[in-house]
Design brief:
The chain has 620 residues and is α/β, with parallel strands linked by helices. Among the domains are: 57-66 and 80-239, Rossmann fold (3-Layer(aba) Sandwich); 378-480, Luciferase, domain 3 (Roll); 485-615, GMP Synthetase, Chain A, domain 3, CATH 3.30.300.30. It is 34% helix and 24% strand. The longest helix is centred in the N-terminal third of the chain and has 22 residues, at 2-23. The protein is globular and about 70 Å long. The mean pLDDT is 87. The protein binds 2-acetamido-2-deoxy-beta-D-glucopyranose (2 copies). One 2-acetamido-2-deoxy-beta-D-glucopyranose binds next to loops. This is long-chain-fatty-acid--CoA ligase. Keywords: Cell membrane, Fatty acid metabolism, Ligase, Lipid metabolism, Lipid transport, Membrane, Nucleotide-binding, Transmembrane, Transmembrane helix, Transport. It is found in: Cell membrane.
């Protein structure tokens, strides 16, 4: 098997050298990328086939054995070595196994922000053979309950500052017999137990591997919530094998053992957790963990902690470029930036201002089975087509009808590949080595992401829901996400989820939610077209209160447009394209229009408000 792969790969490289010699100035990039992929694939095959099964936790334990005194996590003014992290997580594991009846295969939901304890608890759960469900700490009430129950968790662990959010859903949790822990020394809420005191009292000796003997590469390692493209958040199943796949991206982009990575994005997302934290464990490097992103402290932190690698999402890079220029902008050790969504204009500005940082733009969905790394650093591109990528990671770009929201099929009913210069829907072929595990306890949504009979009868693909453009040189550019999700402030917002919540407001009969562009901002901001019940007025106060209680700020519709009737397609799907195009300009829109003023409520939209948003005086 190995010899065969090596042979194919090297023959491939030889052919590639010849082919590209005369036609490409990206020869060196392509070759070095090919070598990196081959090296990585060999490593991956070795790791994934090890017996007994070798998870990221085992890799962590090897780091503890080989470099116990190396710093693992640096957080605020403290640091923890690999050995200390091992002891801390042993204590958590012992506390949990003493005070709960958790056994292998059970799920525990984590509801907390970025802090070292997040890491200890996850390690502890893995040591017990359990799965951690990483809840987004911005969600509340119905969404929180939904996320909690869709992974069938038995225990909830929440940080002390989220106590109120937990108390609100406590009656339902109690009904379901859920054990609730708060990370504090003591707790006097009926039905909630404190956890910190129990961790303090627990011993720190290693736990028997027997406790996780039933873990395999195919067992769920964590659940990460994604809005996917429709409906309420779904728990994407991340198996131990998938965890390795994403973690090894760090090796692919050339991370070295002396690197220090800055993790400030929320750990409940896959980029910080899988690519950042798990990747750091795979390479045995140091993580600088921060509670939250801060544009004004970003470079000071990088200098203070000698950070060499940063992760990003497009919006972050824009925030950094928007900070006032300083003399010491280039005074730092950051050499590599890893992430996605970097827009071409910001990218160029960023490099010019903050120095020659190697940017590796990646593309991939949490639950997806395909992904790319921009190995040439071509500004704006997510990747360049590469034959090895096509072998390891077979994908296809097909023609997509954005108005009808479905793939274009030919007379025989098959999909059509796009030509160079066109934009198409990205599909990833589902097979043993590129599986799609779908969503926990949600067969319907899992099936919805699969596309069958694509090029031949019976074939099966994962539908990414993303539109990518292929240019004439073979570079791929992310264009848009189809259907029912938009991105705002780095978070995906599922339009149907927001619409469902609006329907709970008394005066609302129908709601159509979509995202609109705002000048000077990445992504799209939430807007809703609403039809009111007969003889009722828009109740701005009730709407505001409901939206504020149930939705995180990035998901709240900032504009509401009242319509007599909502436009639907022939198949009764709500039409969004026209609404999106019309945006929120009161000069264009005749319908009554409302604007959500932060911390105040919905006020009538005026030309002044519009102008101040367009000029950037009103911040969104
Ligand atoms: C950062 O690097 C400098 C020089 O290499 C060193 O003196 C300093 O102690 C380092 N700081 C930290 C926090 O490791
Ligand atoms: C392998 C490779 O060539 N990577 C490129 C990635 O992007 C940076 C710039 O953004 C280039 O400098 C690298 O050469």
């Amino acid at each position: 098997m190995m010899a065969y792969i090596l042979f194919t790969a090297f023959t491939g490289v030889a052919i590639l050298l010849l082919v590209f010699y005369f036609r490409s100035c990206y020869l060196w990039d392509d070759v070095s990328y090919a070598l990196a992929i081959i090296k990585l694939t060999i490593r991956k095959i070795k790791v994934l086939n090890r017996k007994p099964c070798y998870t990221i936790l085992d890799c962590f334990l090897d780091n503890v054995a080989h470099q116990p005194d190396k710093k693992f996590i640096i957080f605020e003014e403290s640091f923890y070595t690999y050995r200390q992290a091992e002891k801390e997580s042993n204590k958590v594991a012992r506390a949990l196994s003493t005070h709960t009846s958790l056994t292998q295969g059970d799920t525990v939901a984590l509801f907390m922000g970025n802090e070292p304890r997040f890491v200890w608890i996850w390690l502890a759960l893995t040591k017990l053979g359990c799965t951690a469900a990483l809840l987004n700490y911005n969600i509340r009430s119905t969404s929180l309950l939904h996320c909690f129950s869709c992974c069938e968790a038995k225990v909830l662990v929440a940080s002390a500052d989220l106590r109120e959010a937990v108390e609100k859903v406590l009656p339902t949790l109690k009904q379901q017999g859920i054990l609730v822990f708060i990370l504090s020394e003591e707790c006097n809420i009926d039905g909630v137990e404190s956890l910190c005191d129990k961790i303090e009292q627990a011993g720190d000796q290693p736990l028997s591997p027997q406790l996780r003997a039933s873990t395999t590469m195919k067992s769920p390692a964590v659940y990460i919530y994604t809005s996917g493209t429709t409906g309420l958040p779904k728990a994407a199943v991340i198996t131990h094998a998938q965890m390795w796949r994403v973690a090894s991206l760090q090796a692919l982009v050339g991370v070295r053992s002396d690197d220090i990575i800055f993790v400030y994005l929320p750990l409940y997302h896959s980029s910080a957790f899988l690519m950042g934290l798990c990747g750091a464990i795979a390479e045995g490097i140091t993580v600088v963990l921060r509670r939250k992103f801060s544009a004004s402290n970003f470079w000071n932190d990088c200098r203070k902690y000698n950070v060499t690698i940063i992760q990003y999402i497009g919006e972050i890079m824009r925030y950094l470029c928007n900070t006032p220029k300083k003399d010491n902008d280039r005074d730092h050790k950051v050499r590599l930036a890893l992430g996605n969504g970097f827009r071409a204009d910001t990218w160029a500005e960023f490099l010019q201002r903050f120095g020659d940082i190697c940017v590796r733009e990646c593309y991939g969905a949490t639950e997806g089975n395909t992904g790319f790394v921009n190995h040439t650093g071509k500004i704006g591109a997510v990747a360049k087509e590469h034959f090895l990528n096509k072998i390891m990671n077979p994908y296809a770009l097909i023609k997509y009808d954005t108005a009808r929201e479905e793939p274009v099929r030919d007379s025989r009913g098959f999909c059509i590949k796009i030509q160079k210069g066109e934009t198409g829907l990205l599909l990833g072929k589902i097979r043993n080595t590129n599986p799609f595990h779908g969503y926990a306890k949600n067969k319907q949504q899992t099936e919805k992401k699969k596309l069958r009979d694509v090029f031949v009868k019976g074939d099966l693909y994962y539908n990414s829901g993303d539109l990518l453009k292929l240019d004439h040189e073979g570079f791929l550019y992310f264009q848009d996400r189809v259907g029912d999700t938009f991105r705002w402030k780095g978070e995906n917002v599922a339009t149907t989820e927001v619409a469902d919540l609006l329907l709970m407001v008394d005066c609302v009969e129908e709601a159509n939610v979509y995202g609109v562009k705002v000048p000077g901002h990445e992504g799209r901001i939430g807007m809703a077209a609403v039809k009111l019940k007969a003889n009722m007025d828009f109740d701005s106060k009730a709407t505001y209160q409901h939206v504020r209680n149930c939705l995180p700020s990035y998901a709240r519709p900032r504009f509401i447009r009242i319509q007599d009737a909502l436009a639907v397609t022939g198949t009764y799907k709500q039409m969004k394209l026209e609404l999106v195009a019309e945006g929120f300009n009161p000069a264009v829109i005749r319908d009554p229009l409302f604007f959500l003023e932060e911390d105040k409520g919905y006020i009538p939209m005026t030309q002044e408000v519009f102008d101040s948003i367009a000029e950037g005086t009103t911040r969104l």
